[in-house]
Amino acid sequence: MSRLPEAFATDDPAFIPYLAVGDPDIASSKQYVEALVEGGADCIELGLPFSEPIAEGPTIQKAVVRSLSGGITPEAYFEFVEDLDVDVPLVCMTYYNLLFRYGADSGTKAGEGDYEAPGPRPFVKRAAEVGIDGFVIPDLPAEEADDLRAACDEFDLDLVFIVAPTTTEARLDTIREQVSGYVYVQARMGVTGAQADVSDQTAESLARIADWDVPKAVGFGISSGDHAARVVSAGADGIIVGSALVDIIADGVENDRATADVAGDLREKAHELKQGALRGARESPEAEGQ
Amino acid sequence: MSSDSAADGKFGEYGGQYVPEALMPAIEELRDAYERYVLENEDGFVDEFRERLRQFGGRPTPLQHAEHLSERYGREVYLKREDLVHGGAHKLNNALGQVLLAKYMGKERIVAETGAGQHGTATAMAAAHLDMPCEIYMGETDIGRQRPNVFRMRINGAELNPVTAGRGTLKEAISETMRDWATNVDDTHYVVGSVVGPAPFPEMVREFQSVISEEARKQSEEQFGTLPDSVVACAGGGSNTMGAFARFVDDENVSLLAVEAGGSSLAVDEEEGVAPNSASLSTGGQGVLHGARTKVLQDEWGQIVESHSVSAGLDYAGVGPELAYLVDEDRVGAVNVGDDAALEAFHRLSQEEGIIPALESSHALAYLEEQLGPDADPDEGAREALGDRIVVNLSGRGDKDLETVIEETDKRDIPNAPDMSEFAGGL
């Protein structure tokens, strides 16, 4: 049963941080997730690293390399999630091949012995068992998502889709049919990465999907409390922050800092972002009208 | 030009469009442009493309009877001389087609990835020819082993962006080019270098390359009055393979053989995340890589493993989805030869026919030696499939590979090679 609606249950905007699980190792990663929850996270996107992260910018690419070098596998990821002691909904963010291949045989043709054909169901089943609530799969457009949608429906998990500034009106309809949990509004073009400013595109993008009955969370380029405030005051129901947090971990690795110190910085950054989002909610036209 | 694949971009279970949402509209725009200009010849696109292939590209290329190889193998061997295309490889057919299409689409900037540098070189040449700014992504490892092409790209005015991620080869360069495209999709076209990637790229690249089999078919009928018994082509991503096969697919009497890089071994070292080969048709499993469902070299979890081949142009962990489909349907035979056999074949063609082949093409030639050579331990079915008249697609010339050949020949025991020690240390 997905707990994603809980993240958006109050009028307060949801703060959704992203971390690559296993970056730079499983034990630190666990402390980092806990720190983010202490700092105010309402839901966490737990990245399962894939060797070809084509939608990610340099910050998350490097995190993925660190994590893969540390030996993360899908099974280690599931065990990590199972061991987590945090009380917020969890979203698995990864690339389609890892879902497609989980539990499948390495042979190439169906009908050979006990061959298990590749497909997303075994992965979704295992994810449901360990307490995952939904998925974001950046290389799986709505058109290719029927198999995963069916598996998510079977295990009652959510499937989040991204809406980009370039998404056409016709495709918005396709995405609307497939999306659940929240819609991930991509604030600007390109790949993930912290930016000095957030795009004016956000308000426009939110307006295009204003009548969708699913929460709207904005991501790509949010790196400060002020950004968070602006995005929320533009109408977002939540903010998604990845690279600005992963930067803190990268700095910890490069400068050989203690895990507890890095966790402290993450807690502080999470607090800044959450407070920014709350400030944005108070400043939004909606709030002023009340 | 015509197309026989389904409009949904699928080849059986393979193909599709597995890309970030931001790219989906660009891909739709491209499909629309491909259908209008390439399939329906709107605004005379196809006429202009063909004229430029003649004037700028030097087409048609000969179908040359290889006298000494024919004598050696007791069969008639013909070489489709794509090494004589401007730039030295079949890659120009596709690059010219896509850069011209980008121009028709009103795009203002070209990006491309390259492994061996042949596609980057062809794209840089086509972009200069058609006056389009061009940036090429190339892995650092490949930059090191393909210097002549690096110089050629720069000389033709392209910007070269080194890619340091991973092992610094084609796989990483493709990922990086996709990121650029996702960022600049409004004014930029990504010239994908092979029959890989999201639909419509596999189909479109095959169409641009199908000029190879279109000519070979006509030349076969003119030169020996019938179709060949077999067509043999090396397969990395598969663009020269699909180009050489496309117009023969419906001719059931013509055997089609895709020769992959067997590297040093067909095994995959999952512990190290490395396959010491690039034989995804022969040994890969179904997966999703770089926008398409296809056959992929991967570990038990679905992480893509590093591939290996002595030929940088074949060194890729995936393969075109249409080729994967044709292999599953038993229309195309997937075979492979190792690094040493390819080097031997390189020296043989150079010495016996006076043609220095690309290391990629040397794999196709090596397969003939393995099945038909004096020391062959042949597979009778394979010998029969090759038949009496064999067309080998010579996908490119080997000038770009000379440094690799010197180095690799020097450190191995290649029986038919000249002494390379005098060149060791560089040309």
TrEMBL record, chain A:
Root EC class: lyase
GO molecular function per UniProt: tryptophan synthase activity
Tagged with keyword Amino-acid biosynthesis: yes
Catalytic activity: (1S,2R)-1-C-(indol-3-yl)glycerol 3-phosphate + L-serine = D-glyceraldehyde 3-phosphate + L-tryptophan + H2O
Subunit note: Tetramer of two alpha and two beta chains.
Protein name: Tryptophan synthase alpha chain
Function: The alpha subunit is responsible for the aldol cleavage of indoleglycerol phosphate to indole and glyceraldehyde 3-phosphate.
This protein's pathway: Amino-acid biosynthesis; L-tryptophan biosynthesis; L-tryptophan from chorismate: step 5/5
Keyword Hydrolase appears in the UniProt entry: no
Biological classification of the source: Archaea, Methanobacteriati, Methanobacteriota, Stenosarchaea group, Halobacteria
Organism domain of life: Archaea
SUPFAM superfamilies: Ribulose-phoshate binding barrel (SSF51366)
NCBIfam families documented for this protein: trpA (TIGR00262)
Active site: E45 (proton acceptor), E56 (proton acceptor)
Family stated for the protein in its record: Belongs to the TrpA family.
Keywords in alphabetical order: Amino-acid biosynthesis, Aromatic amino acid biosynthesis, Lyase, Tryptophan biosynthesis
E.C. code: 4.2.1.20
From TrEMBL, chain B:
Record has Signal as a keyword: no
UniProt entry keywords in alphabetical sequence: Amino-acid biosynthesis, Aromatic amino acid biosynthesis, Lyase, Pyridoxal phosphate, Tryptophan biosynthesis
EC number: 4.2.1.20
Recorded catalytic activity of this chain's protein: (1S,2R)-1-C-(indol-3-yl)glycerol 3-phosphate + L-serine = D-glyceraldehyde 3-phosphate + L-tryptophan + H2O
Cofactor(s) required, per the database record: pyridoxal 5'-phosphate
SUPFAM superfamilies attached to this UniProt entry: Tryptophan synthase beta subunit-like PLP-dependent enzymes
Gene Ontology molecular function, alphabetical: tryptophan synthase activity
Metabolic or biological pathway, per its Swiss-Prot or TrEMBL entry: Amino-acid biosynthesis; L-tryptophan biosynthesis; L-tryptophan from chorismate: step 5/5
Coiled-coil regions, chain positions: none
PROSITE patterns assigned: TRP_SYNTHASE_BETA
Keyword Lyase on entry: yes
CDD domains to which the protein is assigned, alphabetical: Trp-synth_B
All residue ranges annotated as the Tryptophan synthase beta chain-like PALP domain in the record: 57-395
EC category: lyase
N6-(pyridoxal phosphate)lysine sites (modified residues): K91
HAMAP family (UniProt xref): Trp_synth_beta
Family: Belongs to the TrpB family.
Protein name in UniProt: Tryptophan synthase beta chain
Organism: Halolamina litorea
